[in-house]
Amino acid sequence: xxxxxxxxxxxxxxxxxxxxxxxxxxxAALMLHASVVTLKLTNQMLKQDALVDxxxxxxxxxxxxxxxxxxxxxxxxxxxxxxxxxxxxEVFHKVGAMGLSIVQIPGTAIRIKGDAFRRWMxxxxxAQQLVHRHMYAxxxxxxYGASCNRLHSMKERCARWLLMTQDxxxxxxxxxxxxxxxxxxxxxxxxxxxxTGMLKKAGFIRxxxxxxxxxxxxxxxxxxxxxxxxxxxxxxAILPE
Length: 241
What we know:
- The protein is α+β, with helices and mostly antiparallel strands.
- The protein is built from ten helices and ten strands.
């Protein structure tokens, strides 16, 4: 597919890698109930355990899925961008949100009201299969993330997170603060500063005024643990381009 300009990607539902796999008929039926919304950094879209009344297919925005305790965000479980969807499983099965979904990178998304999405899913077995394949890949990402948090160094975890964010942002540069990154990784800001400092010293990334730029992709991959490639392989197998 020919790469679009950023303005077109922000409005085109085919930017989302799930929606682009739908038949033209299924996509047209879904878009009858859809609207494009612009989401700001740290907007809370789904709250853990709360019933979900809308589904979001990211176009240029990225979501972080967090686990919470006592009403406070604790640690990121997964990152969801244009390869996925949030709220679909919960809406279809009428269950509460599995975690807190917040906007990690601002941008656009396709929003569909819950009732309309549920009816659409019921009428399309192919759409159901697609959403459930995405759910499988998401659960595998969560499992790898949990293992990574326990077994690997902060530098490796930080490199993995940056690579996954770059993949979903579709750009070398994206907005990021040290405070937000520390919140996502569930550690103190000083700990994140040490990890990003090592990556900067190695020449893999540049950080300036709230914007992080990946300047050596291969180097950043070498600094990451094997979890990044494992997660990437799962999505490629379950949701091939």
